[in-house]
UniProtKB/TrEMBL annotation:
<dbReference type="InterPro" id="IPR030393">
    <property type="entry name" value="G_ENGB_dom"/>
</dbReference>
<keyword id="KW-0717">Septation</keyword>
<dbReference type="Pfam" id="PF01926">
    <property type="entry name" value="MMR_HSR1"/>
</dbReference>
<dbReference type="GO" id="GO:0000917">
    <property type="term" value="P:division septum assembly"/>
</dbReference>
<dbReference type="InterPro" id="IPR006073">
    <property type="entry name" value="GTP-bd"/>
</dbReference>
<keyword id="KW-0479">Metal-binding</keyword>
<protein>
    <recommendedName>
        <fullName>Probable GTP-binding protein EngB</fullName>
    </recommendedName>
</protein>
<dbReference type="InterPro" id="IPR027417">
    <property type="entry name" value="P-loop_NTPase"/>
</dbReference>
<keyword id="KW-0131">Cell cycle</keyword>
<feature type="domain" description="EngB-type G">
    <location>
        <begin position="22"/>
        <end position="194"/>
    </location>
</feature>
<dbReference type="GO" id="GO:0005829">
    <property type="term" value="C:cytosol"/>
</dbReference>
<keyword id="KW-0460">Magnesium</keyword>
<dbReference type="GO" id="GO:0046872">
    <property type="term" value="F:metal ion binding"/>
</dbReference>
<comment type="similarity">
    <text>Belongs to the TRAFAC class TrmE-Era-EngA-EngB-Septin-like GTPase superfamily. EngB GTPase family.</text>
</comment>
<dbReference type="InterPro" id="IPR019987">
    <property type="entry name" value="GTP-bd_ribosome_bio_YsxC"/>
</dbReference>
<keyword id="KW-0342">GTP-binding</keyword>
<dbReference type="GO" id="GO:0005525">
    <property type="term" value="F:GTP binding"/>
</dbReference>
Length: 196
């Protein structure tokens, strides 16, 4: 299925300003520069809806997009920026946790990682938190084009040991080549009760 109409709804910097829950939602979360914007664009079949940055920027807002009046895509602000002041880090935590713990029709949370990197303390902390929420989520290991087949297998095995997810909920993708994108897309659509 392709989408016809994608509308920007709202940008939120404080949990108090979240829109009133309504349409089903899918949310994307990842460290800065993992390819979150690229994955959102690939999912929606758009070139530059969510901004793709060549230099990791500082996006502190949570952005809502309405797709064909049927569901919302929530672009959660990235984490793990170098040299972020504690105050900004606290604001990020408050906003993201405020969203994720709110009573909202969140059908699927998509956690994006860079397959080339190992999970660090920040990733593990986030995974523990997400696990504790008991909300449906999947992991997308992106940038596979940067690795050889052997390296992919090795990195995948490492991530498997870190993630508390069944194998079928872990996706390997490249937003550059498009490899693995259809599988993620159908997983998200099925979470929304839509057909691929
Ligand atoms: N090689 C490669 N580069 C990617 C991939 N996905 C994203 N990128 C690049 O990584 C950088 C950050 O991407 P972006 O989507 O802005 O990441 P975000 O900060 O997580 O939103 C950009 O230069 C993208 O072109 C991928 O699968 N493979
Ligand atoms: Mg981005």
């Amino acid at each position: 299925m392709s989408f016809r109409e994608i509308q920007f709804v709202k940008s939120v910097v404080k949990p108090e300003d979240l829109p009133v829950p309504g349409l089903p939602e899918v949310a994307f979360l990842g460290r800065s520069n993992v390819g979150k914007s690229s994955l959102i664009n690939a999912f929606l079949g758009r070139k530059k809806l969510a901004r793709v940055s060549s230099t990791p920027g500082f996006t502190r807002a949570l952005n809502f997009f309405r797709v064909d009046h049927r569901f919302l895509v929530v672009d959660l602000p990235g984490y793990g920026f170098a040299r972020v002041p504690p105050k900004v880090q606290r604001a990020w935590k408050r906003l993201v946790e405020g969203y994720l713990s709110a009573a909202r029709p969140l059908r699927l949370l998509i956690l994006i990682f860079d397959l080339r990197r190992r999970a660090d303390e920040l990733d593990r902390g986030l995974l523990e938190y997400v696990e504790s929420l008991g909300r449906p989520y999947i992991a997308v290991l992106n940038k596979i084009d940067k690795l050889s087949r052997n390296e992919r297998l090795k990195a995948r095995a490492e991530w498997l040991s870190v993630l508390s997810l069944p194998e079928e909920e872990i996706f390997l993708t490249s937003c550059r080549t498009g490899e693995g994108i259809p599988a993620v897309r159908s997983r998200i659509l099925s979470a929304l009760g839509l057909r691929a």
